[in-house]
Amino acid sequence: VAAEKGGYPHFMLKEIHEQPKAFKDTMAGRILPEKGEIKLDDVHLSKEYLQGIKKIFIVACGTAYHAGMVGKYVIEKLTRVPVEVDIASEFRYRDPMIDKNTLVIIISQSGETADTLAALRESKKLGARVLAITNVVGSSVSREADDIIYTWAGPEIAVASTKAYSTQLIALDFIALYIARTLGRICEKDFQEITSAMKNLPDQAKIILGHEDKIKSLAQKFFDREDVFYIGRGLDYPLSLEGALKLKEISYIHAEAYAAGELKHGTLALIEEGVPVIAPVTQEHLFEKTLSNIKEVKAREGFVVALANEGNEEIKKSVDDVIYIPKTHPILTPILAVIPMQLLAYYAAVARGCDVDKPRNLAKSVTVE
Ligand code: G6P
Questions:
Q1: Does the annotation mark 364 as catalytic?
Q2: Pocket mutation for ligand 1, best pick of 161, 338, 362 (most atoms within 8 Å of C-beta)
Q3: Interface confidence (ipTM) of the complex
Q4: Residue 369: its pLDDT value, please?
Q5: For the chain, which has fewer Cβ within 10 Å, the N-terminal or C-terminal residue?
Q6: In which order are the strands placed within the sheet that holds 321-325?
Q7: CA contacts within 13 A on the Cβ side of 192
Q8: What residues form DSSP beta bridges with 211?
């Protein structure tokens, strides 16, 4: 087993470090800049079909659901097709309004999650076309979907998902670009800008991994706390949800994520001296808004760690510490920003002596309801 971990103490840390390679593998051969095209071998959505689509549903569980929330934002932004995101165990019991004019995107690392698979079957029964994003070739989801995008992240052993999540985000960006191009809703310039930024992601992920010691020492500052809060706006909101999920599942610290603007509608009551608040501010158009929420936390003496784009010096004045990520296109930031979130959770769990790869009560793939 030690050999399988490639010298890392846990599979989770190994898988976090595999992200630069996983990003490359997920993107390999899929961006054709000369043609201004995204090439997805197992996706066959014609222009005629896409023109008839009234709505897209994204359905998943757990971490994959958080990927779906990012996907909604990106797909709506680039394609202007409305997207709804649903938790698989809710979707299947609420008589969802789907028909042949609905595209359903199913996201599942394992391709075997019972609720997700049931949602796929229900969607097909109602006449929708199903596109699946999965990491496992030959999985039930991959066999039953109409179209497939494999994430090519390699086997993920740790229960807490890391590289499967970030590569799901890349797959969702590809879907958004593919649909936007097919429907003529994105210009050549924007397409080139996004795809060339995507190509830098593997090297930028390496840069973040180079700051591991700093992130570790930050985790050691709050690992003994009972509660940690995450606040973010726009794409930083699903990022916060994912950061909080990672922390609670492996360290057993109570962690909650809020849309930053919701802070004053409840969570602020829980902020007192020293309460850790992780605050991503990667969305520059929302920076001033989140900054004012951060100031509200600081006024109550919370301990704020911001996650910001390189070059954002202003944030330093208002927080206790900052983790920087390299600059990328705004819709791609969650792919990079999730890496420090994963490392914070990992090092907090290690400091608490938790069984990081096999958290209590949890399973890698939930094949029963
Ligand atoms: C379990 C795992 C999570 C995962 C979720 C969905 O809860 O512990 O890490 O996000 O299932 O799994 P899937 O394989 O469908 O992505």
A1: yes
A2: 161
A3: 0.96
A4: 79
A5: N
A6: 254-259, 227-232, 276-281, 303-309, 321-325
A7: 6
A8: none
Positive or negative: CA dihedral 342, 348, 351, 355: negative
With a CB cutoff of 8 Å and minimum separation 6, the contacts of 151 are 22, 26, 109, 133, 134, 135, 164, 167, 168, 170, 171
Structure tokens at 158: 């740790």
* Torsional class of 329: left (φ above 0), alpha (ψ -120 to 50), beta (otherwise): beta
Closest-lying ligand 1 atom to the alpha carbon of residue 134 = 16
Cα–Cα distance, 112 to 142 (Å, whole number): 9
Strand partners, 38: 31
Q: Which residue ranges in the chain fall short of pLDDT 50?
A: none
Nearest to 194 by CA among 20, 30, 21: 30
pLDDT the model gives residue 266: 87
Alpha-carbon distance 110 to 52, whole Å?
31
Q: Cα dihedral angle (358, 359, 363, 365), rounded to 10 degrees?
A: -70
Q: What global pTM score does this model have?
A: 0.97
How far, in Å, is the centroid of ligand 1 from the Cα of 49?
Answer: 31
The minimum-distance atom of ligand 1 relative to the CA of 110 is: 14
Q: What is the CB neighbour count within 10 angstroms for residue 272?
A: 9
The Cα–Cα gap between 174 and 136 comes to: 18
